[in-house]
Amino acid sequence: MLEELAESVKNTRKWINYLEEPKARFSYLILAAAEGSIPCIFGRRKVHFLFNLDATVVLRFSAHYARELAGQSHYLIYNPEADVQFELGCNDKTRLVWLSMELDYLHELFIHEPLPFLKPENVNRKYYEEKVTAPMLQMVLNQLFSVQLSEHAMSLFSRGKMLEILSLYFSTKTPDTEACPFLKDEEVVRKIKTAKDYLLQHMDNPPSLRQLARHCGLNEYQLKTGFKEIYGATVYGYLLSHKLDYARLLLDKGTLHVNEVAYQIGYSNPSHFIAAFKKKFGITPKKYLMSLRVRKSQ
Asked: Domain end: 232, 252, 274, which one?
């Protein structure tokens, strides 16, 4: 069993385990220097939670298909049919947490309140979810990188955090198909995800809500309500968060001034960019740049 599970988090020496049990593995990846791509596998019939804490990463599944995972976002993936191989494209600011477990193990934890994809009729169906990570969950994930404990204490701490992450993950609001019945339609969900991809591809000149709805084949009400249910943010709230994550990536490169970054992500007034950046990250872009220079000089 352990050998099979090891294939679900395909180790290069980059992935380090917080916890390794017969039916669950809890790993992290942190890079302090520039990296290219890392080969990985989502193992079949296992539930995978991939949390990205910082800069956007790219999951390249083939020469013609790739998906971005923005900072402070995550995937939940379950494929009962086959292993899914991919190349993980990282940069020097990557921090990821990967939780992978047997389906029956997760089922045991939620035996009294079955999750949709744990129901018997869904065991042989693929399941995919992409969401912005809730602030409380993001805080718990950050705690994983800030503790220094003995090996035994770390094992206990990691198991507790794994259970805390799962409880927070599934206690947060999930799409309410009673209030939002069209989300029962998988085709509608697919169209909303298409709208999200199109929005990010045109973030320098974003479409209006009407244009976006027309592009993905939904009406505006379906798009607004469904987008909020799936991604936990309004259409343009999600876009703003992504733009600010991209702005931080540009600042990380150290080649652009604050005003240049503001203009590049679509702000005509840099002071508005500065205010939005500080609201999201708790620090102004200028002070962020200064902290980067201090770290590089150490």
From this structure: 232
- DSSP lists the bridge partners of residue 48 as 77, 100
Alpha-helical regions (H) of the chain: 2-6, 103-109, 135-143, 151-171, 186-201, 209-216, 220-231, 235-253, 258-264, 270-281, 285-297
Phi, psi dihedrals of residue 48, rounded to the nearest 5°: -120, 130
The enclosing domain of 292 has a CATH number of 1.10.10.60
> CA–CA separation, 185 vs 195, rounded Å?
16
The rounded distance, in Å, linking the Cα atoms of 228 and 131 is 10
Residues facing residue 60 across a β-bridge: 66, 87
Q: Which residues contact 107 (CB under 8 A, 6 or more apart)?
A: 114, 118
163 shares its domain with 192: no
Q: Tens digit of pLDDT for each residue in 59-115?
A: 888 888 888 888 888 998 888 888 999 988 887 678 889 999 888 788 777 655 556
Q: Which of 139, 170, 169, 147 is nearest to 53 (CA)?
A: 139
pLDDT tens digits, one per residue of 143-169? 787 767 777 787 788 888 888 888 888
Verify that 164 and 204 share a domain, yes or no: no
- Written as one string, the DSSP assignment of 182-229 is GGG-HHHHHHHHHHHHHHHHTTTSPPPHHHHHHHHT--HHHHHHHHHH
Q: 247 and 144, same structural domain?
A: no
Largest CA distance in the chain: 57
Rounded CA-CA distance 88/243 in Å is 21
Q: Are residues 163 and 211 in the same domain?
A: no
Q: Which has the closest alpha carbon to 76: 1, 126, 135?
A: 126
Range of the domain at 148: 2-171
Please report the sign of the dihedral spanned by the C-alpha atoms of residue 234, residue 238, residue 241, residue 243. Answer: negative
How far is residue 133's CA from residue 165's CA, in Å, rounded to a whole number?
11
Joined tokens for residue 161: 């955090």
